[in-house]
Every structure is written in structure tokens, then in C-alpha cells.
């Protein structure tokens, strides 16, 4: 089978979870599949993400698309990519970023789309004004079209499966939940002290990893942390690692209002090879998000032995299981209380480290790739497995039983 995978939407240093998903899935497929032929559609700007591929059945197809220019990229995906799929004689096309070309169904090429979440609907209903209305509308329309016209749909959590059903009206049996992996190497050869010095990070600290988009709820967390720091006499600072997002002005306002400027450090984007150092030297990882389709940083933190304080919302309880500590992300008093509980109890944090290692080990790219390949085979008519197969491991249920 010839499988075309479009990665032209992936913007290095920008996409975060989307980049991790595409890179991890392709690497997992390379490890488990020496039979099928893969054409990975890349752009000149993101080709480096896949330069590590060495298997002879994997080929990089460089598209004349500018990853960082949204309109040009969109036009390429819609007008030229379908014909590339036909020219390459693809038996199946896989789209890992929420949309498919409108013309693809006309070419009768089976397709799979991964829809990570339905955040445009969340922004429309809960956070209006943070994303331009036209952009939000386009993203909702394209994701809905993809869900309805792709042969199969993959989501990365059961929460996202419910969101897709709710907002697109498709039947649940068309969707397969495939949990993402998170089992990359730990850069133990890097000098942690040099990394922390490079980014101006001083210990002890709490780390948040990700953009400062409004749904990340970073502004309320800073307010709550400022209260906890004073109430519990905490020596910690807050380190925010990620690019600026649509909620950054609110974060700056909250930091000033809480008089937290002296202990909140926005270090910006952290290079991939340095991220392990930033995680593992933290006393606590926090993710106060209001909405997540999966939550890569939660697994990354737990894998590196960092206790995780996360929201009791969206997909995060699926990912954190009984290894994480939970907070109400809309209640500053709850956030402040949980921060105090964890940062004043070294014994509790040590127990969480052990549980975190066990939970993180459940998320493997080889497993995700195997389950994705199964969906590919069904979509292409190569297998008779029933539609809507669920993941072979129920992460939430398994974590509760341990």
C-alpha cells in the first residue's frame, strides 16, 4: 500500500503538540512497518523535522508550499496536493492536522484525518474575540468537512472523540481513538546548569510548557501562584516556556496586577534539546488549561519524573490518570491551595514521581503507529476489522486499577 502523509501544516518551533504528533507518528511508523510505501509531503521550511528517516520505504516529497505563509500553504493543500496524491499513485492519504483538501473525495482516494480537538468551537463559545472571527469560522468549517468526508477519523483522546461528534454530527463509529506517544530520548548528556543559565532560570521553580494562548489559562495561574507564594512563604518562581500566544497581553496584565513580576519568568521558546533539562530540574509542572485535546507536556513531565498539577477538565484526566494532582482551573483559590499542598510536601511529590513514570510509560509511539496503521488498512479496504475500534489500552481505566 502506498500511503501519502501531508505534513505541510507543521511549523517548526510554532505548532507544539501538532509538530510532536507528526514527528512521533512518522517515526513510529518507520520503526514498525517495512512493507508499505510512505511519501511524506514536506515543505522547505519543515523538511528538517524528518531528515532522520532512513528506511528505504520512506520518501520525502518536497512541496512548493511555504509552511509559514498560511494562505499560500492553504492554497497548495487545496489545489495541488490532491493531484500530487494522484500522481504519486497513493492508495491512501493521511492528514494529521484537522483538515483535508476539498477536492480529494472527487479523486476517490481513501483518506484519514486526525482531528486533535475542536478548539475553534470552544473559543467561539467561551473565549470570543481571542481568535479573528473569520479564522475561527474557516477552521470550524474545514474540520467539519474533513470529519464528514474523510474515510476514517482519528482523535487523540476520548474527550476529542466526543467533541468531534458533538460539533460535526458524524457517527461515533467512524472515529478511532489513538492515544499519542511520548517516548523520546532524555538528553542526559546535556549540562543542566548551562541550560538553566542560558534561559535565566533559577531554582526552585514551577514550570509551565506551551504557548500563552488564552485557553492555557496562564494568567489565572499566575494570580493564584502569587497568592500561594505569599501565603505559604514559597521560595519558588514560575517559569513559562513557550511562544507568545493570543492570551499574552492578559498574562502581562495579570502579572502586573498580582505584583508577580519579580518571580515570573517568561523564557520563550525552549529548544527541543534543552527542554528535558528545564523539565527535570523543576519541583512541579503545571498545566491549568481550560481545553486540551491531549496534552503532550503532561506526559513529558511525568516521563522525566516531575510531579504534575493539571486541570480536571477536557482530556487531561485521561492523560494524567491517578498519577497527576488535579485543580479546578476556573477557581483561583483551588489552584492556590493545590500549589501550596504540593510545594510544601516533598513526600507527596516523591510519590507522584513514581506514579508518573508508570503512567507515562503507557504512551508509546510504536503502539500509536500500529493502531494508526490498522485504521489505514481498514480505510483502504485491506482489513475487515469493524469500524470504530477503540485503543487496545484504555489509559484512564488502566491507571485507576493500578
Written description of the protein model:
With 402 residues, the protein is of the alpha/beta class. It is 43% helix and 14% strand. The protein is built from 15 helices and 13 strands. It has helices at 17-32, 70-87, 119-126, 133-149, 158-168, 192-198, 218-232, 248-257, 272-280, 296-303, 316-320, 332-343, 346-360, 365-379, 395-401, and strands spanning 2-6, 37-42, 58-62, 92-95, 111-114, 152-155, 175-177, 205-209, 237-241, 264-268, 284-287, 308-311, 325-327. The strands form 2 sheets. The chain has a 7-stranded parallel sheet, sandwiched between helices. Strands 10-9-8-11-12-13 form a 6-stranded parallel sheet, with helices on both faces. The longest helix has 18 residues, at 70-87. The two termini are 39 Å apart. Mean pLDDT is 91; it is low at 383-394 and 396-402.
Low-confidence stretches: 383-394, 396-402
Which structural class do you get from the secondary structure elements?
alpha/beta
**Helix coverage percent of residues?**
40-55%
Shape: globular
**Topology pattern, helix = H, strand = E:** EHEEHEEHHEHEHEHEHEHEHEHEHHHH
- Through-space gap between termini: 39 Å
Largest pleated sheet: 7 strands, parallel
Strand content: 5-15%
Q: Major sheet: order of its strands? A: 3-2-1-4-5-6-7
Average pLDDT level:
91
User: How big is the Rg?
Assistant: 21 Å
Number of strands: 13
- Number of helical stretches of at least 4 residues: 15
Amino acid at each position: 500500500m502506498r500511503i501519502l502523509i501531508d505534513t505541510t501544516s507543521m511549523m517548526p518551533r510554532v505548532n507544539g503538540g501538532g509538530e510532536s504528533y507528526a514527528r512521533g507518528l512518522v517515526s513510529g511508523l518507520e520503526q514498525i512497518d517495512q512493507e508499505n510505501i510512505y511519501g511524506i509531503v514536506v515543505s522547505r521550511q519543515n523538511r528538517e523535522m524528518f531528515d532522520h528517516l532512513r528506511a528505504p520505504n520512506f520518501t520525502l516529497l518536497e512541496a512548493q508550499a511555504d509552511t509559514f505563509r498560511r494562505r499560500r500553504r492553504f492554497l497548495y493543500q487545496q489545489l495541488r496536493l490532491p493531484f500530487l496524491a494522484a500522481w504519486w499513485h497513493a492508495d491512501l492519504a493521511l492528514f494529521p492536522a484537522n483538515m483535508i483538501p476539498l477536492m480529494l473525495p472527487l479523486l476517490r482516494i481513501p483518506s484519514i484525518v486526525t482531528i486533535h480537538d475542536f478548539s475553534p468551537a470552544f473559543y467561539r463559545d467561551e473565549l470570543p474575540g481571542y481568535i479573528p472571527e473569520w479564522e475561527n469560522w474557516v477552521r470550524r468549517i474545514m474540520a467539519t468537512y474533513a470529519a464528514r468526508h474523510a474515510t476514517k477519523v482519528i482523535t487523540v483522546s476520548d474527550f476529542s472523540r466526543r467533541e468531534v461528534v458533538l460539533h460535526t454530527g458524524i457517527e461515533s463509529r467512524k472515529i478511532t481513538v489513538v492515544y499519542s506517544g511520548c517516548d523520546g530520548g532524555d538528553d542526559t548528556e546535556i549540562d543542566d546548569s548551562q541550560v538553566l543559565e542560558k534561559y535565566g532560570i533559577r531554582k526552585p521553580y514551577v514550570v509551565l510548557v506551551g504557548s500563552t494562548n488564552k485557553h492555557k489559562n496562564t494568567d489565572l495561574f499566575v494570580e493564584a501562584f502569587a497568592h500561594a507564594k505569599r501565603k505559604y512563604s514559597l521560595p519558588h518562581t514560575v517559569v513559562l516556556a513557550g511562544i507568545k500566544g493570543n492570551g499574552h497581553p492578559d498574562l502581562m496584565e495579570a502579572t502586573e496586577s498580582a505584583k508577580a513580576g519579580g518571580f515570573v519568568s517568561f523564557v520563550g521558546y525552549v529548544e527541543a534539546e534543552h527542554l528535558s533539562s528545564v523539565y527535570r530540574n523543576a519541583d512541579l509542572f503545571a498545566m491549568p488549561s481550560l481545553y486540551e485535546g491531549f496534552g503532550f507536556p503532561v506526559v513529558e513531565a511525568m516521563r522525566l519524573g516531575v510531579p504534575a498539577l493539571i486541570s480536571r477538565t477536557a482530556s487531561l484526566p485521561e492523560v494524567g490518570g491517578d498519577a497527576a494532582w488535579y485543580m479546578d482551573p476556573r477557581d483561583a483559590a483551588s489552584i492556590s491551595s493545590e500549589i501550596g499542598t504540593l510545594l510544601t510536601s516533598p513526600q507527596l511529590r516523591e510519590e507522584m514521581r513514581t506514579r508518573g513514570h508508570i503512567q507515562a510509560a503507557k504512551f508509546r509511539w510504536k503502539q500509536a503507529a500500529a493502531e494508526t496503521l490498522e485504521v489505514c488498512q481498514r480505510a483502504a479496504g485491506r482489513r475487515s476489522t469493524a469500524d470504530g475500534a477503540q485503543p487496545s489500552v484504555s489509559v484512564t481505566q488502566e491507571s485507576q486499577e493500578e
